[in-house]
Amino acid sequence: MNRPAGVRFAAVLAGVLAVLPIGGNALEVEDYRAVSQTLSAEHGAAVVAVKFVMSLAASGKEERIEDTTQALLVSKDGLLLVPDRAVSLDLGTLMPTGPGPGATAPVAKSSEFRVRLAGGDEWLPADLVTRDSQLGIAWLRVRNPPAAGFTFVNLDDGLRAEPGMVFFTLMRTSDDWGGVTVFRPGLILGQTQTPRQLLLVDGVPGVAFTADGHPLGYVDMDLGKMVRSSKGNSGLGLDMADVALQMTPIEKIAAATRLAAKLPIVKPASH
């Protein structure tokens, strides 16, 4: 039985979320009231919501799905850091055995980006600047920024992340919870050079900060690897060493952001 691409995508994503590690369990005995106040005051206004329309083209048909993601303002003129999967997603990477003989996996492409600032009601249009699939991030730019500019996080103010460090990720809830800023603690578990320089962490996706507000890196999940690990083998899945999210060191994110800041927006494809 063939299901629409959007249904398959939702089913696969639900399976991935079921195997995600839960951040902060080892840290719940601590009191982070001062950290919460510091991070919210210093960076809360830079954490914004982004809406977009994701188009799935499969079997000659196109499905359009509206979705949201977290974003971080990283420049005064409105440059935004977002997950790359919010811009483009090859659904074939989420299939443990691939799309099947002779089949082509659909690729989801996003457009119609809109940004809502902290405390605001209006959704402001934004445009894609560029993306880096290896780092797992992309950049948008808000149209017509105000003369005073935006509150933003300076990624060049980062510190080196090392195993054993505690970090904190800021997020903004949906309207169902009032669009407020929340934070989650995480822990850097280890580091690896394979397949590239990464830190392995327990936490949630987004930019990671120290307790006093310095950025440490960008945390994300490898959706395809999680699907393959959970469903692509015949074992019982008792080895939990690989069940971790990945953090790219902030110096790599900052360097890529400096390059992205110099680029023009990507012109929308004509239909």
What does this structure look like?
The protein has one domain: Thrombin, subunit H, CATH 2.40.10. The protein is 17% helix and 36% strand. The chain is built from four helices and 13 strands. The strands form two sheets. Strands 1-2-3-7-6-5 form a six-stranded antiparallel barrel. Strand 9 (181-192) and strand 10 form a beta hairpin. Mean pLDDT is 84; it is low at 16-27.
List keywords for this structure.
six-stranded antiparallel barrel, six-stranded antiparallel β-barrel, 271 residues, Thrombin, subunit H, alpha+beta
* Cα gyration radius (Å): 19 Å
- For the record, the CATH class is Mainly Beta
How many runs of DSSP E, i.e. beta strands? 13
What low-confidence regions span 5 or more consecutive residues with pLDDT below 50?
16-27
Helix content: 10-25%
Structural class: alpha+beta
Q: What would the principal axes of the Cα set say about the shape? A: globular
Which CATH-level-2 architecture?
Answer: Beta Barrel
N-end to C-end Cα span: 32 Å
Mean pLDDT: 84
